[in-house]
């Protein structure tokens, strides 16, 4: 069993505290993704788990051991770095077998493990090449291979796909997911790309300014963001946010827009309260190009500023209550710039945030 | 005139002027060296001739024969000087490389107080001309009893070379991503193993080029060695050149023959490691 537990982890650089007492439990075999904007402390947290950064306070437990003061080599972890960190003077075979050689394993055992890893990652044809002669995707696979030969308790990935182009990134995402299915090990994965987080994770941990903002399954954080930061960070395109005020059984927005209070929030909000209405582009669609809505909905007329045809759907940029919002058109047709359309807003899928605390009122 | 023809003519003239300039520049660099080699095979009459004899009339090995001959035949203890030079240059280079690697690594990888000031201070020591230090060094060494010894000169050359090796090697280690050593530590290495098994092999070209520069500096140095060595048992080859000067005459042929022997090892070494040297210099030069 190799669960990872972070208890009140703090990291200071001099007087500057960059990670503020975070707590995280990662279960055995769980795939956890730490996601957040640059400088949020996600990589620092990962490096503290790896032992590459000392911790300023708290406790890190891997398996059953507190590893606060253990060097990286004694934590039985593997790490895949953003720039691969392959040893340039060694061949792929030597790179893969390096850790086992350092551990003074028998040569036959090294060969067996290296061959096994090369098969899992389809690296058999490149074994005698040096990293300089490999493409980005192949290097990334070697980096993963180097991580798996040791059969570590925990895999750590530090933005491993950032240097790849969009197509290769999508391909490698699938490979990482397959790898997890094959080797069944605890994985902690850091990325700033929310698409990677959504597609790979069993659980997403969203960080901001050294704090954990929210953690949960991809669906949970997508559908019920805890605050406006998570709402706009997770999901592509980000959630539309409209500031307004609670009136008498209705929500009032600038420009005279009035909408019914979503049913889930009727008993929570009070008249006069400043709120922010949040809804995704998937929940505001032109009539005739939308999905069937089960619950409450509202009809709104808006003129389209710009449209972005994406093939199976079109994104429509429009203005509502003085804010630019994004809507989605299914079964798309050509939309002229400035064309006025009637949109259907699915109120059952809307979220309300407190305008002061920015937290979800649900 | 046809515009294509004009352009062709222009590129032809550019090419010719490029070659002529290159020839002049190479002549300025190479002629003194060639002149030394030529003079080492010529009799004194040809060497001293005015106007100079450009095309050699008769070449012989007399100067070399005399140099390796007995004291009365104009001989000098070449082998002893060669051994002295070799011991002093190799030892000082090895020490300067070790200190340079440790220092360069520290400057490249660690943060510490006064790092920039120390680095600039180290480089500033190179601004002091070696010969200006010769008198103080002479006094200090005379007092401590290490004057006219291999040890004394090794110490001086180490001090001369260390700032340079640190600066050069620092540039190389800066180019190696710290992730490599971190990956090695995660793979089970100690910090020491990560350095020797991963970072050092990657920076080998840089260390080699620093080593060559340190070696050549020690091997060719004259000003300090001429002040700090006196006897046959400590004099280096460049100082040995002075054996060919007497009160009224200078044996130019002998001096050139010894100079050729001085140049050969440096030349061989440079040829052997030229691949490393060039890749090392360009590698270190990008962000160094």
In short:
Chain A is α+β, with helices and mostly antiparallel strands and 362 residues long.
Keywords:
heterodimer, A: 362 residues, alpha+beta, Rossmann fold, OB fold (Dihydrolipoamide Acetyltransferase, E2P), 2 domains, six-stranded mixed β-sheet, five-stranded antiparallel β-sheet, B: 288 residues, mainly alpha, MetI-like fold, 0% strand, flat, disordered C terminus
Structure description:
- The complex is a heterodimer of chains A (362) and B (288).
- With 362 residues, chain A is of the alpha+beta class.
- Chain A folds into two domains: 4-233, 3-Layer(aba) Sandwich (Rossmann fold); 240-354, OB fold (Dihydrolipoamide Acetyltransferase, E2P), CATH 2.40.50.140.
- Chain A has eight helices and 20 strands.
- In chain A, the strands form four sheets. Chain A has a six-stranded mixed β-sheet with strand order 6-7-8-3-9-10, with helices on both faces.
- Chain A is elongated, with a radius of gyration of 24 Å.
- Chain B has two domains: 3-68, no CATH class; 77-287, MetI-like fold.
- Chain B has 288 residues and is mostly helical.
- The relative contact order of chain B is 0.13.
- Classes of the chains: A alpha+beta (362), B mainly alpha (288).
- Chain A binds chain B through residues 50-52, 71-73, 77-79, 81-83, 85-89, 98-99, 102-103, 146, 150, and chain B through 177, 179-180, 182-190, 193, 197-198, 201-202.
